[in-house]
Amino acid sequence: MILAATTIPLSSCTTTSDGFRRQSQSITARSGVRTLVAKNWHIDDDCRHIDYPAIDIVEQPKHGRLEIVHEPLFPKLVGKVSKCETTKVNGVVGYYTADKGYTGSDRLVIRSPYEEGKTEEGVLSVTVVK
Question: pLDDT tens for residues 101-115?
């Protein structure tokens, strides 16, 4: 069994259709500060890394940058596989950094697999503060 998940911090509004899920979320980020906005992983039942899943940037932020990196992370899972939450696994992480000195609104859109053959699109509205 392959376990894959995309998580974007904070609560959200989710819409779903056949094999496609869209989450719209809002966060607050500090100007010039690197902020975690998404993480994704593919692991097996024994919490072993399978591969690095894709996180595709659909829309770049206009007042900052989105950085996608490979790094160890703790997966957030439910059910019998929640045992993996305490095991660091290799994954893909997205970080948003607003332009230094910028305050106001920004937006970015990413797309990633979240289950076998399914895709999730995350629309993130960012309020940037000092």
Answer: 999 999 999 998 777
For the entire predicted model, the pTM comes to: 0.81
Closest CA to 37 of 102, 105, 126: 126
What single DSSP character describes residue 75? -
Between β-strands 12-17 and 56-59, what pairing exists: parallel, antiparallel or unpaired? unpaired
Q: Please say whether the dihedral angle defined by the alpha carbons of residues 110, 111, 114 and 119, taken in this order, is positive or negative.
A: positive
Token couple for 67: 């950085």
SS3 breakdown of the chain: % helix, strand, coil, rounded to 5?
Answer: 5, 65, 30
The mean pLDDT value for 24-33 works out to 95
DSSP string, 84-97: GGGS-EEEEEEEEE
Q: Which residues contact 18 (CB under 8 A, 6 or more apart)?
A: none
* Cα 126 to Cα 102: distance, rounded to the nearest angstrom: 12
